[in-house]
Design a protein that fits this description.
It is a single chain. The protein has about 90 residues and is α+β, with helices and mostly antiparallel strands. It contains three helices and four strands. The strands form two sheets. A two-stranded antiparallel sheet has the order 1-2. A two-stranded parallel ribbon has the order 3-4. Helix 1 packs across helix 2. The protein is globular. The termini are far apart. The mean pLDDT is about 90.
C-alpha cells in the first residue's frame, strides 16, 4: 500500500509492505526517485537495518553509501552536519 503525504511540490509517498526493506531499492526505482543515495542512520538503527537497506539498494543497481552518526541528541549538531555534507 502507498500513502501520499500531500504537500504540494514537497509531496512524498510512504510505502507500507511486508518485507519492505528487501523491496526498498525496487520501490525507489519504480517511483524514479533517483539513482544515487546516501543512507544516514545512527548506530542502533544501523545495527538492525543498515545492511538490509544497502543490500536492497545495491540489488536494484542503485549507487548507495552510508553514513553512521552516533546515537543521542547531543550528536545532532553542526559538527555532525558538516561531517555529513563535507
Amino acid at each position: 500500500e502507498t500513502l501520499k503525504v500531500d504537500l504540494g511540490s514537497r509531496s512524498y509517498p510512504i510505502f507500507i509492505a511486508v518485507d519492505s526493506l528487501a523491496k526498498f531499492g525496487e520501490l525507489l526505482k519504480l517511483y524514479k526517485i533517483g539513482e544515487r543515495f546516501v543512507v544516514i542512520t545512527n548506530t542502533l538503527v544501523d545495527r538492525h537495518y543498515g545492511a538490509s537497506v544497502l543490500a536492497s539498494l545495491h540489488a536494484a543497481k542503485l549507487r548507495a553509501d552510508k553514513i553512521v552518526v552516533a546515537d543521542g541528541e547531543r550528536h545532532k549538531n553542526l559538527k555532525t552536519l558538516e561531517r555529513i555534507t563535507g
